[in-house]
Amino acid sequence: MRQVNFSLIFIFGLSTVFFTLGNTKPTTVYVLPWMEFTLPLAALLLVAAGIGAVTAWIFASWSGMLNTVERLGKASEFEAQQVRIQELETDLDRYRSTVQTQLGLLPSGNSESASTSSDNPAVDIASKV
Q1: What is the pLDDT of residue 76?
Q2: Residues 59-111: tens digit of each pLDDT
Q3: Handedness of CA 22, 25, 30, 34 (dihedral sign)
Q4: Is the Cα dihedral 78, 84, 86, 92 positive or negative?
């Protein structure tokens, strides 16, 4: 890929040199009604290319800054979501332990009747009647 980049830069530079050598006639450019410039066509092309390059660089910097701000916003949202998930997991564990504790305190119907029937058979017969 470096060879392709080097080749493109070399071809662009060489074509700029040939264009500059072939276009040395002065040209007048009217920027505003009271502002005009007279320079060789090649120099005006280089100035216009320079202005375009600086504008593209400013736009790229601005876009990069906006992307960075957006990424930081998403990162803070992600961290807030992770904190919220941790809080919900803690609440869920607390609720589970509370439910388990409450279930442990409730009397079980099967274990109570089994213990009564084994302790006193007369009570078991009386409860069935």
Answers
A1: 81
A2: 999 999 999 888 888 888 888 888 999 999 999 999 998 888 888 777 765 55
A3: positive
A4: negative
